[in-house]
Amino acid sequence: MSEEQIRNLEAQFEERIARDEKIEPKDWMPEKYRQTHIRQMSQHAHSEIVGMLPEGNWITRAPSLRRKVALLAKVQDEAGHGLYLYSACETLGISRDELYEQLHSGKAKYSSIFNYPTVTWADMGAIGWLVDGAAIINQVPLCNTSFGPYARAMVRVCKEESFHQRQGYEIMIKLANGTPEQKEMAQDALNRWWWPSLMMLGPTDAESVHTEQSMKWKLKRKSNDELRQQFVDQTVPQADLIGLTIPDPDLKWNEERGSYDFGEIDWDEFWQVVKGHGPMNKERMKARVGAWEGGAWVRDAAMAYASKNAERKDKEAV
Amino acid sequence: MNNTNLYHYILGIADNSLILGQRMGELCGHGPSLETDIACTNISLDLFGQVRSYYQYAAKIANDGRTEDDIAMLRKEREYVNVLLAEQPNTDFAYTMARHFLFDVYHFLFLTELQKSKDLTLAAIATKSLKEVSYHQRFSTDWIKRLGDGTEESHQRMQNAINDLWTYTDELFHQTDADKAMVAEGIGVDVTRLKAAYYDKVNAILEEATLSIPESKYFQKGGKKGIHTEHMGYLLTELQYMQRTYPNMEW
Ligand SMILES: [Fe+2]
Ligand SMILES: [Fe+2]
Ligand SMILES: [Fe+2]
Questions:
Q1: Chain B residues 32-91 with a CB less than 8 Å from chain A
Q2: Which residues of chain B have a CB within 8 Å of the CB of A300?
Q3: What confidence tier does A210 reach under pLDDT thresholds 50, 70, 90?
Q4: Mapping DSSP to helix (H, G, I), strand (E, B) and coil, where does residue A43 land?
Q5: pLDDT at A213
Q6: Parts of chain B with a pLDDT under 70
Q7: Considering the domain boundaries, does residue B140 fall inside one?
Q8: Coil, helix or strand for B1?
Q9: Are B40 and A57 in contact (CB under 8 A)?
Q10: Predicted pLDDT at A150
Q11: Count of other CB atoms within 10 angstroms of residue B37
């Protein structure tokens, strides 16, 4: 293809997106579009999978059977999200094994929030309420993103994430209305998860790369700072309602803006965790790589068995 | 308690699902593939669902103010009456699948009979659980075949698992006093009568999976009397952690 032909194709492609048409895997697309989507969707998929670990940490210790069942179901949902997203990614011509390889080698990123430890039961509440809450804010706009498989995956994922968010908040309500010890546990969890949750919405706009291109492709519809503001405005009244205090002395309602002003995020901490030096980065990767490498003989056996079976069937057919 | 035998009989069924569900829950997020991870979590979920139905019923029978959670999480180790098989650890994926397979085949036969119980609550739980357990049985049977007849390594690992866990199979068919009383009333299942069908089925699948059937005639028992292996205390430590650390609270 000549350069001019490519330019024409690109122009048509951008027009389709501007008309709100969905791009499907078999459609022509600029290489950069493909790569950007592989990067973003796989990063999202990895986050779902790594995100199973901090909550998985409490399955055997859940305080009641009802909570245990709900937690198992939640973590299973996250696995399902990972599965859809990897499949959506595979439509762009990359295999799941390659994507895992990128995760395990540290080339691909996942959401940094999962590099914090879950140290009490209340963390199960805080994660559902805040982390799934922030994820929804990030992901709802993606239900209208330009790449069809991603948009459709997000519709289903968002429904489940909002269920998780309610479930997490409900754990917090119960604790906040419980004994002084329980209430203290809830407040402590909020103290520890609040700032990392704000960081989840990404670096501040001044420092954020990729944004302009992403806006055009509807991979991003609002800036990180706008999303963060939305999260704060949505979450503060929920904390108030159950008598928990947001751990930010600078938090104040701003009448003029009709929004909350809030304190400065510790960006040094943010970058430290992003660069791999958070409290749990090493453990999370050890768990993922361990499961993958430890499971290699199982996957090999399944393949060997399947091909033996296919051979047997061929022989029968003869 | 006006029906001690029924209460103990329910625990004899439910404790197996509780302990197996707990073991399966340990694996969540650490499976050999995303698909198996989801399937194993599903099995754990099914088992805990069954557990809740049984313990809610047991709590009603006990009628002493205890809840399903009190029964699940606040007994002493000696009061848990699951079979030893259920509490064996996830040494590797072959052990996990072998443990479930050796239990699932029993569980399926057991629930099929329990559906005929004169106790309508138990019969209803059995019918509902049977659908789930037939899936569990299919899943673990498939893995016995895949690993048994997969690679040399997987064959060896599965054979080791079967050899080690075989010693716990005989206990499945021991009758407790509560069993005998409930069988007499037409409520319980006579497990001694499931034994032949169990070994027929298990042996046939092991053969198909190119595995050898262990010849040892030495079996372990004790779980049904509350005498467990050394693994049990640690399992309960996690299971009971919250209820023990924060007594009398709601979650
Ligand atoms: Fe998710
Ligand atoms: Fe997500
Ligand atoms: Fe979620």
A1: 32-38, 41-42, 44-45, 48-49, 51-52, 55, 68-69, 72-73
A2: 150-151, 153-154
A3: low
A4: helix
A5: 83
A6: 1-2
A7: yes
A8: coil
A9: no
A10: 97
A11: 25
At A7-42, the pLDDT tens digits run 899 999 999 999 999 999 999 999 999 999 999 999
How far apart CA B58 and CA B6 sit, in angstroms, is 8
Please report, for the domain that includes residue B151, its CATH number.
Answer: 1.20.1260.10
For A217-236, write each residue's pLDDT tens digit.
999 889 999 999 999 999 99
- Answer yes or no: is B98 within a domain: yes
* Domain membership flag for residue B56: yes
Task: Find where tokens 């499949």 sit.
Answer: A87
Residue B209 counted as domain residue: yes
**Of the candidates B64, B67, B106, B127, the residue with the CA atom closest to the CA atom of residue B191:** B106
ipTM above 0.90, yes or no: yes
What's the number of domains chain B is made of? 1
Note whether A247 and A226 are within 8 A (CB): no
Residues of A in contact with B251 (CB under 8 A): 63-64, 66-67, 121, 171, 174-175
> Would you state the pLDDT for residue A316?
85
How many Å apart are CA B125 and CA A147, to the nearest integer?
A: 46
pLDDT band for position A205 (50/70/90)? confident
User: A310 to chain B, minimum CA–CA distance in Å?
Assistant: 13
Q: Which tokens is B144 given? A: 């016995």
Q: Which domain holds residue B47?
A: 4-245
Token reading at B200:
């027929």
Which residues, listed in sequence order, are joined to residue A253 by a DSSP beta bridge? A260
pLDDT bucket at A1, cuts 50 / 70 / 90: confident
- What six digits make up the tokens of A154? 């997000």
Residue B49, Cβ neighbours under 10 Å: how many?
A: 19
d(CA A42, CA A181): 40
Under a CB-based contact definition with an 8 Å cutoff, are residues A168 and A126 in contact? yes
DSSP secondary structure string, B92-114?
SHHHHHHHHHHHHHHHHHHHHHH
Cα–Cα distance, B131 to A47 (Å, whole number): 33
Cα-to-centroid distance, A309 and ligand 2 (Å): 38
Question: What is the value of pTM for the model shown?
Answer: 0.96
What is the reported pLDDT for B1?
A: 66
Comparing C-alpha atoms, which of B117, B118, B136, B137 is closest to residue B49?
B136
B window 183-202, beta carbon within 8 A of A? none
Mean pLDDT to the nearest integer, A276-284:
97
Give the whole-angstrom CA distance, residue A215 versus residue A145: 10
**CA atoms of B250 and B159, how far apart (whole Å):** 45
Put simply, the answer to whether B48 touches A56 (Cβ < 8 Å) is no
Closest residue by Cα to residue B27 from B45, B49, B14, B15: B45
Contacts of A301 in chain B (CB under 8 A): 146-147, 150-151, 153-154
CA pair distance B244, B119, nearest whole angstrom: 33
For residues A79 and B41, is the Cβ–Cβ distance under 8 A? yes
Interatomic CA distance for residues A189 and A131, integer angstroms = 12
Band of the pLDDT at A189, cuts 50, 70, 90? very high
